[in-house]
């Protein structure tokens, strides 16, 4: 995952919590739209602060750059870091 500037190595995902937790999604940007029409709302540190402060800005998370790549097929019993290593298609 390539995160927005200011996030360093910590991704922040927006959500709502009460008795249950809901992870929020938004319309996919150009990095994700070839895979799906929705994506999680991934925030940089400034957007995180705005989200926690009650911002109504619908553009939060629009600049997230997510990188995706093919990985090996795996089954339910498979484990290990090799499952997320990129493969050459």
List the helices and strands and how they pair.
Elements: E1 12-13, E2 15-17, E3 21-23, E4 25-27, E5 38-40, E6 42-43, H1 45-52
Antiparallel strand pairs: 1-6, 2-3, 4-5
Largest sheet: 2 strands, antiparallel
Helices, by number, come to 1
What coarse outline follows from CA principal-axis ratios?
globular
Note the beta-strand portion: 15-25%
Low-confidence stretches: 1-7
Which key terms come to mind for this protein?
89 residues; disordered N terminus; single chain; two-stranded antiparallel ribbon; mainly beta; two-stranded antiparallel sheet
Describe this structure as you would to a colleague.
The protein is mostly beta strands and 89 residues long. It has one domain (1-68). The protein is built from one helix and six strands. The chain has one helix spanning 45-52, and strands at 12-13, 15-17, 21-23, 25-27, 38-40, 42-43. It has a two-stranded antiparallel ribbon. It has a two-stranded antiparallel sheet with strand order 2-3. The model is unreliable at 1-7 (pLDDT under 50).
Briefly say what this structure is.
The protein is mainly β and 89 residues long. 9% of the residues lie in helices and 18% in strands.
